[in-house]
Amino acid sequence: MENLRTINVALLGVGTVGGGVYKLIQRQASELPHKINANLEVKKILVRDTSKDRPGIPKEILTDSFEDIINDESIDIVVEVTGGIDPARERIARALQAGKSVVTANKDLIAVHGGELLDEAAKAGRDLRFEAAVAGGIPIIRPFKECLAGNNITEVMGIVNGTTNYILTKMDEDGMDFDEALALATELGYAEADPTADIEGYDAGRKVAIMASLAFNSRVVFSDVNVEGITKITAQDIEFARNFGKVIKLLGITRNSEEGIEASVHPILIDKTHPLAAVRESFNAVFVHGDAVDDAMFYGRGAGEFPTASAVMGDIIEESRNIMMGCTGRIGCSCYKTIPIKPASEVESKFFLRMEVPDRAGVLAGISNIFGEHNISITQVVQTPSVDGIANLVIMTDDVRQKNFDDAIAKLEALDSVNEINSIIRVY
Ligand code: NAP
Ligand code: HSE
Questions:
Q1: From ligand 1's centre to the CA of 47, what distance in Å?
Q2: Contacts of 377 (CB under 8 A, 6+ apart)
Q3: pTM across the whole model
Q4: Could you tell me the CA-to-CA distances from 369 to 364, 374, 403, 412 in Å, in that order?
């Protein structure tokens, strides 16, 4: 195809994701004219260190000056794949103000400053796209904004962190303990050198904030999400869960009800028959309930060079089509409501509790009295045979308001007949 226009792209960053995007643009070169009616060219790449050896990347397009990019009027799309809040936030705002559309994979930034950056895009009549910011290669941002726009969505649940899903899978299927599974996840490159954001649930929390904003058309930021990681989960919890026909998954959950939006990340026991229970290893999945679509599940790779680059490329291609048709700024921010956040103390859950108790008469009665006083209904109780006069007691509750549950736990901890509460895990 001759005499086609060229859409010029600048990459901010060419690490794991940026490198994948660069390679995909080359790999797709002969297809792109058919897909966007234009050629696509990477004109400049911003890095910190231009002297570093980067196989396959022409040195002459590398720069360590953002000004080179912002001042280049021929650049149509800026792709931010550096990560972190600053300076990415200012660079994205400046790119939009300079009339460039922006594609980013930066969940840390979008989960906190997404609203203000989308406002900048609207002011400039340009687009800010972030499909790769949630669940890597799985299409979920555009489905919320477009394909599911005819729904009132009431619940979104997801396994949106591959590192923790891999760790929990290895603990469940291979009997590893947490440290052993984390070491393997690090060795295989799933976990970062500093795995804190993954194992403490922050990474999943950021993705939940972004999904909640899109699902309920009301801005939810990372600090609105009640976050707990998987560091306290033990092999024993996993074994008890299995005996109850359940598996433990780190689930991001967000719901919209008359009392407001609840948004959380917790390790949760789910039935082995639930579709999310079958999501193993480092895979991600998002389960959506809408009033029209009913249940829908999106499954795939949540991270990695090409899966993440796939999502970024989809955004670049869609944006190129908009530029070619002169219709940028068509969808923009979809948060047109202001729904309050439901306080964590008001959220209801079922619970699994594991505790060590002396094996003697009256212990169970004392515990169940406390539950009764706090309006907590017990659904199952299991006691293991005692060793040296100490037994493991496992209790499953019905739905209980967090405040009532916390009050009951404080009373249990003060009981002489409870040696130790080992685990408290939510149940779906
Ligand atoms: P990465 O491998 O660490 O690459 C970062 C790149 O950005 C490097 O090329 C680095 O330059 C450059 N860079 C970093 N800070 C910069 C600065 N201040 N100025 C100029 N260049 C800078 O990171 P990544 O894994 O590709 O992640 C990129 C983004 O994608 C992050 O927001 C991440 O959360 C998101 N994401 C990643 C994945 C994944 O699987 N990796 C999945 C989903 C989303 P040098 O090479 O010179 O150091
Ligand atoms: N660290 C993330 C994970 C990938 O383990 O899923 C980037 O979102």
A1: 9
A2: 371, 397, 398, 400
A3: 0.97
A4: 9, 9, 17, 10
